[in-house]
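Hi support team,

I submitted a single chain yesterday and got back a structure, but I'm not sure I'm reading the token output correctly. Could someone confirm the output below corresponds to the sequence I sent? I've pasted both exactly as they appear in my results page.

Thanks,
R.
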Amino acid sequence: MLPRRLVLCARRGVRGAASAGLPGADIAADLALFRRSAAGNKPGAVRKSWASRRIAESIVSESSRGGNAARAWAGSLLEAADAASPSAGDAVLAEALQEACTSSASGATALLRMRGLALDVLRSSKRGGSPEQAERASRAAEALLPIVAHHYGPSSLRLRRVTWDGSTGRTLEQVAAAEAVHPTDRMWRFRQRFGPGRRCFALVHPAAADDPVAVLHVALTGRPAASMGDVNSAGSGSLLPRPIAAAHAATGVAGREAAAGPARGDAADAVANFWSVSLCAPGLRGLSTARHLIYGAVEELSGRGREPAAAGRFVTLSPVPGFARWAAELGQPGADEARRGASAALDDGSCRALWAVRAEAADAALDAAAGVPEARSVAHSALRSAAEPEPAGAEGSLVVLLALLVRWQHAAARGGTASLPAIMSAGAAAAAEAGALRLCRWYLASGGVPRCPVANFHCGNGAVLWRVNWAANVTPKGLVESFGVMVNYLYAPGRLEDRAAAFAAVARDEPLPVADPGEVP
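Hi R., thanks for writing in. Yes, this is the structure output for that exact sequence:
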């Protein structure tokens, strides 16, 4: 017969076990106990439940350490799982966490954190770890995926609005820590994200209501935001939609969050700009959690949820993280074929404007090459183009464009100005702007190049490419990633599901879907 103290401990969980004085066996022993125990009788079921709870509590505790310590511990756990069952160690771990989900409040949290740790171990192993560890992590992440999808599916998550005054400090802390697109360490800037003209939505699991698993930031404006400056101005007056501005003015307190939005129907012309979406839980990578968050926000802001309508049009203001790196590769030796393909982005007018400033571009690239080794091949190509007495066609003009963009990027990286006319002539600045917008749109919409992950995400949700914006993010990060270019993707309620299905059916190298000519938000 099982000792009464052990039965009581199983009911109370691991902390109860510790308080009752039981020895804390290591996790390998817990996995072995879980594997050996048969669930067909009551003592075996109690032992399985007790071991699974201990495993779940260990995962929750150890994953909170973060960084290398958590990764090393997760690697040891995966080895222990293989030792407990060499033929199906990942399945044993998945079964233990599934058991914990049904018998412990921390089970669902442990399940999510374990998959996040496995993905983290997999990523670090690919950068220099052992193949065996990478294989274990891959098998564990795959085994945990269907269980995570079940416990964290759309029906299990709840949409919540996060506010400065109404949400807990833990929730706000999680929102700040999860911000990956536009992080900030300034308290006033972070608080501004919950002020007038702003909305913040999160998906939460009922078992951990203060720990959001995904977060979406929205700026409400009168027209689609073309830059982060427009987003930061939301709620200050010039870009705030009239009915929303009136509602905020009625509060009588400037800078405070308005409790109510505009009346239904009054906000049909307002625009909701989705400018940051982040996963707080790495274990949800590969699932459609962020899609359901955006869909829920569209429903809520349209007035079909618990709050009055706040917007009738929906766009994003999104980064293009791989654009600058891809453009730099066009100027490298051996990229002749890629340059010929990308030169199709430039029309005759752009080519003429760029060719007229080729000498200035060559000087600019030489200046940049002094501090950026990657710019040297671009500088050499620009010098060859400058020496040509006759126009060298679109490919030569593309080299001129790359030289101008590299010069601007280098000046900003050194702490210089983010304004093109301040570092080059007006003609060169205008040619660089027009050429960069055409090149970025070709990069995104033409197909035949590695698709931007952000574009793939939004178009997979049913959005379409609408507008490319110049100098939209002139922070060092924005210039390094995309020369400051950002993109608006259009979310059209009523067409999202059909467009998402159509996008899923096309080949990966097909062109991105673009907005219809009359479909202007």
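A quick pointer for reading it: Residues 329-462 form one domain. Let us know if anything else looks off.

Best,
Support desk
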